[in-house]
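Hi W.,

Here's what went into the run:
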Amino acid sequence: MDEYIVLIVSCIFVNNILLAQFLGNCPFFGTSKKMETAVGMSMAVIFVLVLAGVITWVVYNFMLVPLNLTYLRTIAFILVIASLVQFVEMFLKKSIPALYAGLGIFLPLITTNCAVFGACVINIDKEYSFMKALVASFSFAVGFGLALILFAGLRERILLARVPGPLQDTSIALVAAGIISLTFFAFRGMV
Amino acid sequence: MAKSITHEFVKGLWEEVPPFRLVLGLCPVLGVTTKMQFGIGMGLATTFVLVCANILVSVLRKVIPAKVRIACFIVIIATFVTLVELLMQAFAYPLFLQLGIFIPLIVVNCVVLGRAEAFASKNGLLPSIADGLGIGIGFTISLAALGALREILGAGTLTLWEGIELVNLVNIFPGFQPFQFMIQAPGAFVCLGLMLCFMNLAGSK
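Here's what came out:
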């Protein structure tokens, strides 16, 4: 049990996928201008990352390893993720239209979100068991959401501040992200 | 025609240089630039994938149906990334270990997919090669510059390639204390933000 608690804390805070591992930074800067879009993106990532983490683990361990095809990992994973996103999109559109409308454009964007792909690869590289891969995927996604929503709140405040000309927009956003990253750095002592 | 090809090449070096002008493909930019040599290695790997993917996409652009083009592009890119992975394991193993997860991640680097979608799928073979090469070299230079800045401030050294150290501030100034913040995660964001700021300053004049 302790093992899992350490895993959850380390995936959410210490090895935060956005701020410590630098995965998924494009949506981090792209969708953090407004709180609503940030929440939408976070929900979509949690949903897809957990599914993708579990499915790629199964594909790797029960298909690629027995067939000695592990060098095809990159192609196999990206295909699994792309088709999974497509499938989830169609499924939600039919059966839960409210959720589909809420996630909107963020679902298709997830295919090229390196947080999803990266987390799947990390699960395999660290040789997690099935349960651990599930827990780690979920925790990585929660960490992604936490950092994104915090950052969106900060960026809404930056809009009101008077920023010097050349620093405006992306530049000040990067510096602000650095400061958030510094606060997450403090969690290093925990695990 | 010759003029436009040079133009496609040159635009990647300043006008549209990723990641500054196009804020795309940030993950490797932030993740691997703790040393100049990693920046160069990552940049070259990305350039290879970019050029090869542009060639294949441009050649096949009339065959690929519009509806499934993104999926086709991703498969093409993933093929070349696997190729780079295997080549690096064979010929540059230490660098491969250092860059780690960021090599397979070239698959989801938006710069590569972005160029395939925005340029190579609409243009002929030669302009596509020029575009891929230009953007790739621009990307390599950006990564190397960011890596150089972070390395010199954060560790006091400047490594061009495995074992080739250009400068070592610790030897020149015996009391030199490296500013370690720069080679850690938060320093990457702050350093890139400030570089972008200086590029805006230089561009506005």
